Amino acid sequence: MSLMTVDEVAEFLGVKDVRVNRLEREHLLNAADKDPDGKPLFDKADVEKYKEIALRLGGL
């Protein structure tokens, strides 16, 4: 399992980091773990699946 930070997810999805935090808070993109500072870390496979589904539904 490869973990991605909020900034990495934001860059991959082409959105701002605030949006990634909101997606996590609203349980639309679930964090796999937390870093030592308490920030969410996401499984790369989950992020790729989320992007695919979001694009099918009309975009991010």
Write a structural description.
This is Helix-turn-helix domain-containing protein. InterPro entries: DNA-bd_dom_put_sf, HTH_17. The chain is globular and about 35 Å long. It is built from three helices and three strands, in the order βααββα. A hairpin with a 5-residue loop joins strand 2 (33-34) and strand 3 (40-43). The chain has a three-stranded antiparallel β-sheet. It has one domain (3-57): Multidrug-efflux Transporter Regulator, Chain: A, Domain 2 (Orthogonal Bundle). With 60 residues, it is of the alpha+beta class. The relative contact order is 0.23.
Low-confidence stretches: none
The helix/strand class is alpha+beta
CATH class: Mainly Alpha
Cα(first) to Cα(last) distance is 24 Å
Total number of strands: 3
CATH architecture: Orthogonal Bundle
